[in-house]
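Methods — Computational structure assignment.
A single polypeptide chain was analysed. Its primary sequence is given first, followed by the predicted tertiary structure written as structure tokens.
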Amino acid sequence: MVTGVSQFFSIMGFAFALPFAPYYMQDQLGVTDPARLKFWVALFGAATPLSLALFSPLWGHLADRYSRRLMLLRANFAGAAIVMLMGLVRSVEALCLLRLMQGMFTGTMTAAQTMVSVQAPPHRSGQALGALTAAVFSGSLTGAFVGGVVADWFGYRAAFLVGGAFLLVSGLLVALWTTEDAPGAPHAPEARAADERLAGQGVLPVLLLFGLLSFVRQFDVSFLPLLVQDIHGGLAGASIRTGALNASGGIAGLLAALVVGRVADRSTPARLAVLLTLGAGLLMAPQAWTRTFGFLFPVRFAMVFCTGALDPVMQIWLTRITPVRRRGAVFGWAGTMRSAGWFLAPLGSGLVAARYGIRSIFLVGGLLFALVLPAIRWAERSRREPVDPTGPRPTR
């Protein structure tokens, strides 16, 4: 319970200011040339996932060896310091450097998922991870909406400072109201047996699928504020529109996590992943032609419902095939794959935007979702029996 509340404040802190970085660059850091703005937006979007991909396995290994709670504390307090510093920078280069450091020292979601996956009973892992995902989306929607208002009324720098304060609150909640028995390192025979089970359960294909889905899901995110700015017709007031759109998506993700988290405990994750991926692709492509918020908001809401539901589905899939003693390491590698996709997404969408324009990103993104479907089937075929014979067996 406390982990979910802390994650609400953590994601709220990040969402309070980071979605408005393209406006911050224009309004406070002097980036007004359209070509230069696209470059820095793409770099800002790619910096955190690059460093997160490199450091996630290290933090995952340390979580298994010493303490998952300690890793969650590290992620929250480091995030608080970094987000506050973002509100004090005077150049876009310093902003992107801090964004790189964010990936090196934070990663609150992976740390929280690891902690919850170990503590939750196997037959209720879907419900527990779904509730955690719901906390993530509710924090995102609250942060984006309120942050947009704060940025518009008090400035973008104030939004970063307040966002860092929420991350500090998250860290204090974990420090004061959570406990954990420090995990010990497995003996050599246990470690070898766990590694053999990992290979037999098809963990690698699922990890690769994490990366592929992350790439497609994040493909449009960095440039969404610029689409909003284009529809709105200017920079003034665009942050409120963007915050409201992100809040709408947060509500969709919250509902999806609560619904799908329960359904996934009694179903096959791969089957749900196929349906959700197909729906997300069909809903992303039409956003390329939208000219009104009256069309963009409901389509975006439905799309985020599908992509938000993919989070607990993939986490449940990975939990079912991963031994507890290896869960921190495996979730760390999942964080790496997710971050690798997140890193490549703004670079790929930046190239598309530079050549074909902002709107083409959404059409290409819809096509990419369709290409994920065969990968889901491949990952499902590589799986054998569940790791824990006493755990839930998915129906076919």
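Note: Residues 385-396 have pLDDT under 50 and may be disordered.
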